[in-house]
Structure formats: C-alpha cells, structure tokens
Here is the input.
Amino acid sequence: MFAVTAFAVLIALGIALGRAFLGPTVFDRILAVNSVGTKTVLLIAILGFLTERPEFLDIAIVYALINFIGVVAVLKFVKYGDLAAASRGEDGL
Amino acid sequence: MIELALDILSWFFLLTGSAFVLIGAFGMWRLPDFYSRLHPAGLTDTMGAGLVLLGLLLQADNFTVGVKLAIIAVFLLVTSPTTGHATARAALASGLRIWQASGKPHGANAERKDDDT
Here is the structure.
C-alpha cells in the first residue's frame, strides 16, 4: 500500500516537473517548484514507512522548512532582483 | 480486530490522498493560466498531503513518529497558503493578466513575461 502511494506521488512529481520546464511564465515555474517540494516531503515520509526507517521523517521536516524559505527567497529575488532589497510600499511581498 | 479496522482506514486515507495528489498534478498540467493553476496546487498541498499524512499517522507504531508526522502536517498547512498567497500577489503586482476564454489570448502576454525574466 505504501508502494502504491509512493508511485502515485512519483507520477505527480513528474507532471509537476514538466510544468516547471514548460513555464510559460516565471510564476508558473515557481508554483511548480513549490509543488515539487511538497511532493518531495510526502515521498520521503512514505519512503520512511516503506523501508521501516522512521528517521526519514526528520529529513522530511527539514525539506519542508527549506522549501518554504527557498520559495519566498526566489519570489523576492524575481520581484526585486536583489535579496537584500527593502520592500517598497503596498505591493511588497 | 481493531488493528484490521485501523489498517483499512489508513489504506483508505492513503489511496484517497494519492488520488488527490494525482488530480492536483493533472490540474496543474491542463489548466490554462497561472491563476487557475494556483487552485490544483492548493488542492495538492491541503487535501493530498493532509490525507496521506493522516494515513501514515494511523500506521505509526510509536509516539515519536506520530508527533513528527503531526509537525510535518501542521507546517505544511501553515506554509503552503502563505507561499500560494505570496506567489499570486507577486504575479498580480508584476502585471500578469488573467486568462479569459473569449478575450485577449494568454500567449502574447506570456511571451512578454518570458522576455522580462
């Protein structure tokens, strides 16, 4: 049963990667990469149960944290071209 | 007896969660523009991840594993709406137009955005 779920998540990962390659806008790519990150967390958690090694869950927590920080950093970089820029006015992130 | 019931419940949650993850991925592939693709992305992050983690939680054999799974679930539920909101807001602030079936085609706008970045 874990193998079926892992396979479904792998197929979904492939489709999301295809969307990340095709675009067409940069925001489509960011959204797809964010989705790939979420599915990676799920896949690592399922693999931990599949191989009877629950330590994998720690790695899944770290992936969830890095995914969030990474997406927000990339969004800020795309918008301002500079990670250290102060947000300007009403339309800041 | 109770273990069999828990197993069946956990399989149900795992299979439904996989179905939601797959539907979200297909929606992200098929829908016409960025703003409509936000919706299946949210579907994957909430229903898909939530149900899969709930199914795994029913299979957890000790307390620590369950707590870690709950931490992952809570963290995904907090961060995925935040990133979705930030992405949509950044796209709106950068002037990405909303797709309309009868109006201006998405293609011209999309090419302009690709040149920018």
Notes: The two ends of chain B are 59 Å apart (CA to CA).
